[in-house]
Write a structure and sequence with these properties.
Layout: E1 3-9, E2 15-22, E3 32-38, E4 46-48, E5 52-53, H1 65-70, E6 80-89, E7 94-101, E8 112-116, E9 124-131, E10 137-144, E11 147-148, E12 152-153, H2 158-166, E13 174-179, E14 188-193, E15 206-208, E16 212-213, E17 218-225, E18 231-237, E19 253-256, H3 261-270, E20 276-281, E21 290-295, E22 306-308, E23 321-322, E24 359-360, E25 363-364, E26 367-368, E27 372-373, E28 417-418, E29 421-423, E30 429-431, E31 435-436, H4 444-456, E32 469-471, E33 476-478
């Protein structure tokens, strides 16, 4: 599995507001005023500042504009990054204060005038916002394996991101944990791939964020940790080589971590295990595999196949198996046994001959076979009584009558066709293709080959031999 982190961000832009005092021509400013800030709409509070002198310093002691604003509960210490003061009219004593708020306050409302005790004809306090705090908005999408999610809101919950990813055909299941927001309303989503369908070191998610709003808005993906997965090779060896001659086999064989069944079979037989059958299952979450090995040639309780990998400490005989805590091990699932062999012998009198009519049956653990002929071929072929491959022989013949007197002839017609039907043990009928009985004027050998091919074309028959004899006079055949 892989643990990517979805990081959404926007440029940090401070909110800037101005406070400007003025009065009518010929007037001179004096006195104080107070400001208000209402953040209750975003879960804050409505607060009023202390009195601010018409000529208050930008920063410095507790009477400065910065300190007075930071004394408000919804601004707080370090809530104001900087304040500058500019003289707009020295004769009137009017000033312009530029206030830069900390990004942690977010996009705050405009300051308001809550009280004015300014003196001077036509004294005023003008408030303005130069730049709002930069906040994220809009939507973004995530792509994995060529498939893209539906649009996700910039502040999507962990569950919303998980559902969108799991809706893709390339992802089975994920866990998503969200943290945030940042000062700009950005969030981090940690995505953990939790299914074997996305095992090991998966590709990184790709983000698209053309529909995110906010200056410098972006959605980026980084990988915190690659998923653990196996790679490399390991070695196999066997201390009990077939026949006992270790020199006839390789000392060890190297196999890849994901060796196919046939590759593992070849490696094990190369180190002296004899004929084996191998079945592979997997991969698991870390791309590990299990090979189940059945010994087909060696009998009895055999020693384990030995495996060696990079951190096994056996220099010169270990493979290079990679992955966190990568290992190879052998587990015996069933001990081998020695096959029991029993012999059945039939015998007769002094000459040891067995009568063709002799029959017997066998009993094993309460079950009885059918009747077995002791000498099935003895009557037809003396001396072949123990031939275990007695073959069925059947005969096909063509014949004709002399029709010369009626304008015909005395030869098997070249228009004669036939097909053969074979009935299986369960009664099903299988029919051959048609065979020409006399296509070449008495060439029974050619027809024998055609019959042989037609019969071997049946599913129930594998090997058929067809012999033949011919009658030259009427071009008839016996097969």
């Amino acid at each position: 599995m892989r643990l990517p982190v979805r990081l959404q961000r926007a440029s940090a832009l401070y909110e800037i507001q101005t406070v400007e005092t003025d009065c009518a021509a010929g007037g001179t400013l004096g006195g104080t005023f107070a400001l208000g800030l209402d953040t209750s709409a975003s879960g804050g509070s409505s607060e009023m500042s202390g009195e601010i002198s018409f000529a208050a310093a930008a920063e410095g002691d507790y009477l400065s504009v910065k300190r007075v604003l930071e004394a408000m509960k919804n601004v707080g210490p370090n809530g104001v990054v900087a304040v500058t003061r500019q003289v707009t009219n020295a004769a009137k004593g009017s000033y312009l204060w530029t206030v830069t708020f900390a990004t942690r306050l977010g996009n705050i409302p405009q300051l308001t005038l809550r009280d004015s005790s300014l003196t001077g004809t036509g004294a005023t306090v003008e408030l303005a916002t130069v730049r709002d705090q930069n906040l994220l908005g809009g939507t973004f999408r995530l792509e994995f394996g060529g498939y893209t999610t539906a649009a996700l809101p910039h502040d999507a919950t962990g569950g919303e991101v998980a559902s969108a990813l799991e809706a893709l055909s390339t992802i089975d299941s994920v866990d998503v944990y969200r943290t945030g927001p940042t000062d700009q309303g950005g969030y981090n989503w940690t995505v953990t791939f939790t299914s074997d369908y996305n095992a090991g070191d998966v590709p990184q998610l790709v983000s698209s964020y053309d529909d995110l709003t906010g200056s410098g808005a972006a959605a980026t993906v980084t990988t915190v940790r690659d998923g653990n997965q196996l790679s490399g090779t390991f070695n196999v060896s066997f201390s009990h080589p077939l026949g006992g001659d270790a020199s006839a086999f390789r000392a060890n064989a190297t196999v890849p971590f994901d060796a196919t069944s046939s590759a593992m079979k070849h490696a094990l037989e190369a180190v002296g295990c004899g004929e084996v059958d191998v079945h592979r299952s997997g991969p698991d979450f870390e791309r590990g595999y299990v090979w189940t090995v059945a010994f087909l040639e060696q009998e009895g309780d055999l020693p384990h196949v030995a495996v060696a990998f990079a951190d096994a400490g056996s220099a010169g005989s270990a493979g290079d198996l990679y992955g966190v805590d990568a290992k190879a091990r052998v587990v015996e699932t069933r001990k081998g046994t020695v096959k029991e062999v029993q012999t059945i012998t039939t015998y007769g009198g002094a000459d040891m001959s067995v009568n063709a009519s002799t029959k017997f049956f066998l009993r094993f653990r309460g079950q009885v076979t059918g009747v077995i002929e002791a000498s099935p071929n003895a009557s037809a072929n003396p001396g072949d009584g123990c031939d275990a491959t007695a073959r069925e022989v059947q005969q096909i013949a063509t014949a004709t009558v002399d029709t010369f007197g009626a304008g015909g002839d005395d030869h098997v017609s070249r228009l004669l066709y036939f097909s053969l039907v074979y009935y299986t043990q369960d009664g099903a009928a299988q029919e051959t293709s048609t065979v020409e009985a006399n296509p070449l004027g008495g060439d029974c050998g050619a027809v024998a080959s055609a019959i042989e091919g037609a019969l071997e074309g049946l599913e129930a028959l594998e090997e058929v031999t067809v012999g033949w004899s011919a009658s030259v006079d009427d071009e008839s055949c016996i097969w």
